[in-house]
Specification:
This is Nuclease SbcCD subunit D. The chain has 387 residues and is of the alpha/beta class. 32% of the residues lie in helices and 23% in strands.
Length: 387
């Protein structure tokens, strides 16, 4: 059986204020085309369909379009909710939608009840484990301690118990939304730490032929049979080195697995540039980034004038500007109270300007600060007099 594994669509999410809806729509078209051209038997979507619990209307419309296109294709789809989704909202109408071959699995209580599909070699049981918030599901699974590993292990016990009662040779696929030990995170994922622990060991998923993971945005192989598809689009500059893709997985008659990465279309490459502003504007080797979305970190010791406008002349798609000035080593840590002891309010303000910009205020700026403090003092005096 041939599976197409994807996750973390985050419909409705922007990229540094850039609307990604068109790019997300192109991805849905690419997904449907791939499923048709590669003769896929099932599509699995491992959570975070939406970016937030109450998605914007345009994202809901795109999701509705995706469901119709997958149903029209006649390829069964199994989909779980992630930590960004509202499980209750995503699961509305699941029974009716299931009649069209789109199987939404959002109820933790149904972890041990698979969607069973068949090919010429027999049955394949698809178990959907939606994102399991430990504090909310510990009673459902009868565990005393609310932790990611504890509740996932209990859910997998149900999976293995159901699988043991099925015909010999039944193959199995688990969809899960979790942070598995060994995975590489990015800045895009919402923290799911509970009690200081976010990750679960891959051994939790032992006993199934393939585990299709969601949550981490980088495509990666935790073990031969445990993989993240990653998000199909970038959602932070920490993903600049990601290759956005889906997994095309073949399950043989004995559960033997092979996997191929299918690249996803992205609107623009990402580039993270660092250095002095003049160097970034002049370096010929950076010409290849003129069409990229750019994050520029400026290391000038003094903040340059109009840096965003000047960068945009060369890199018109600059979206993020960070300042990390090169400065001499600092003196040993001294408390804030000691650093400002004996200094006037004007001096403290001037020090703040120097800290932020890399150079203190000039004579004109000192006058502005002094006048501002004089105005505040005058206002305070007037209020005291009026009491």
């Amino acid at each position: 059986m041939r599976l197409l594994h994807t996750s973390d669509w985050h419909l409705g999410r922007a990229f540094h204020r850039v609307n990604m809806l068109d790019a997300q729509s192109r991805f849905i078209g690419h997904l449907v085309t791939t499923a048709r051209e590669r003769e896929v038997d099932a599509v699995v979507v491992s959570g975070d369909v939406y970016d937030r619990a109450v998605p914007p209307l345009a994202a809901v419309q795109l999701f509705d379009d995706a469901l119709h296109r997958l149903a029209d294709l006649g390829v069964p789809t199994v989909m779980i909710s992630g930590n960004h989704d509202s499980a209750r909202r995503l699961g509305v109408g699941a029974g009716l939608i299931g009649r069209a071959g789109i199987h939404l699995r959002t109820d933790p209580a149904a972890c041990g009840t698979p969607v069973v599909l068949a090919d010429s070699h027999g049955d394949v049981a698809f178990y959907g484990l939606p994102y399991l918030e430990p504090a909310l599901v510990k009673d459902e699974f009868g565990v005393e301690r609310a932790g990611h590993e504890t509740v996932l292990a209990a859910a997998m016990d149900r999976v293995r118990a159901d699988l043991a009662g099925r015909a010999p040779g039944t193959r199995s696929v688990v969809l899960a939304h979790a942070f598995v030990t060994g995975g590489e995170a990015s800045d895009s994922e919402r923290d799911i730490t509970v009690g200081g622990v976010a990750s679960v060991p891959a051994g939790v998923f032992d006993g199934v032929d393939y585990t299709a993971l969601g949550h981490l945005h980088g495509s990666q192989t935790i073990a031969e049979r445990v993989r993240y598809s990653g998000s199909p689009l970038p959602y932070s500059f920490s993903e600049a080195d990601h290759r956005k893709s889906m997994w095309l997985v073949d399950l043989g008659p004995d559960g033997f697995l092979s996997a191929e990465r299918i690249d996803c279309p992205v609107p623009r490459p990402l580039a993270r540039l660092r250095g002095h502003l003049e160097d970034l504007l002049a370096a010929p080797e950076l010409e290849r980034h003129t069409d990229a979305w750019v994050e520029a970190t400026l290391t000038d010791p003094v903040r340059p004038a109009d840096p965003m406008a000047r960068l945009a002349e060369r890199f018109p798609h600059t979206l993020s500007l960070v300042f990390d000035p090169e400065r001499p080593p600092q003196a040993p840590d001294v408390s804030y109270a000691r650093r400002i002891a004996g200094r006037s309010e004007e001096q403290i303000a001037e020090d703040f300007v120097a800290h932020v910009r890399g150079a203190g205020p000039d004579t004109r700026e000192q006058t502005v600060l002094r006048d501002a403090f004089d105005a505040v003092r005058a206002d305070e005096t007037a209020r005291e007099s009026a009491r």
